[in-house]
Amino acid sequence: MCVNTKHKASVFSTLFSDPETLRELYSAIEGVDIPKDAVICINTLSDVLFMGQLNDVSFTINDQLVVLIEHQSTINNNIPIRMLMYIGRVYEKIIERERLYQKKLVKIPAPEFIVLYNGVDQFPDYKKLSLSDAFMNIKGQSIESLELVAHVYNINHGRNPQMLERSRNLDGYSIFIAKIREYRKELSLEESVKAAIKYCIGNDVLVQFLKDNSSEVINMLTEEPSMEEIIEIRFQEALEEIREEGREETARNLIRMGMPINDIAMATELSVERVSSLVSCNIQMTQ
């Protein structure tokens, strides 16, 4: 049986899948009280190809704020890039396309980007990740054309205690994952999950959720393959394709300038064989 390395995202998105748990979660993160009469509309993205979730949680509050929350068990500095892609898709869902061509300014919900981390690597209680950190050749320049800031919070048990105290579900989730890791030192993954479920139910932690979803939770933590793993792999592949296209375009420019093949390969990190192939293509196109 394959260990699902992204397992916590599936349990997380299931736990926080209704307006009331999201109200509690957002209130705990922001330290505010969302009124009971506030309308929370879930618009988590789905992928037609995989028939599953594309991101963890997305919802609007009174059509004034759109919140994207991602759960991460590994440190991923590309989250702002991913959230940039997500928010565009979310706006496509909640804005009528025809309205974009009207003269009158279309008012849209303001975005907020939140990441909840509880992996095993060392990480501070809070860290800000900015999209502009990924921009090339902008040192010392002011970025006004496009910026996206993701707020990352460490929700491992014992971290950000005030936040966890404000959300019984988030605190319970943190305890549940911590118990799995504790039992995992001596038991198999499946037995660790079962033991953690038993512990939590016996200690008033996520009792109703685990009673109602125990079989699903066990499957989420041990099944293969993981939807999150598939999406992550496809996303990384897409990024690599973009980088590859950029390197090849640079190589073509250097070929036109007459730079030697070995120097081009070194400058672009492409193989000599690939650069030679581009040279051949360039010769054919000019004949």
Topology overview:
Elements: H1 7-15, H2 19-30, E1 40-42, E2 46-47, E3 52-53, E4 57-61, E5 65-72, H3 79-94, E6 110-117, E7 126-130, E8 149-154, H4 161-166, H5 168-184, H6 189-202, H7 207-222, H8 227-256, H9 261-268, H10 272-286
Parallel strand pairs: 5-6, 6-8
Antiparallel strand pairs: 1-4, 2-3, 4-5, 7-8
Helix pairs in contact: 1-7, 5-6, 6-7, 8-9, 8-10, 9-10
Task: List its traits.
10 helices, alpha/beta, six-stranded mixed sheet, 287 residues, globular, disordered N terminus, two-stranded antiparallel sheet
In short:
The protein is of the alpha/beta class and 287 residues long. Helix content is 50%, strand content 14%. Strands 1-4-5-6-8-7 form a six-stranded mixed beta sheet, with helices on both faces. The protein has a two-stranded antiparallel sheet with strand order 2-3.
Structure description:
The protein is α/β, with parallel strands linked by helices and 287 residues long. The chain contains ten helices and eight strands. The protein has helices at 7-15, 19-30, 79-94, 161-166, 168-184, 189-202, 207-222, 227-256, 261-268, 272-286; strands at 40-42, 46-47, 52-53, 57-61, 65-72, 110-117, 126-130, 149-154. The strands form two sheets. A six-stranded mixed β-sheet has the order 1-4-5-6-8-7, with helices on both faces. It has a two-stranded antiparallel sheet with strand order 2-3. Helix 8 packs antiparallel against helix 9 (261-268). The radius of gyration is 23 Å and the shape is globular.
Instruction: Give me the strand/helix succession.
Output: HHEEEEEHEEEHHHHHHH
Low-confidence stretches: 1-9
The biggest sheet amounts to: 6 strands, mixed
Measured as a percent range, the helix fraction is: 40-55%
User: Which structural class best describes the helix and strand composition?
Assistant: alpha/beta
Task: Calculate the mean pLDDT score and round it.
Answer: 83
Large-scale geometry = globular
Give the count of helical stretches.
10
Computed Rg = 23 Å
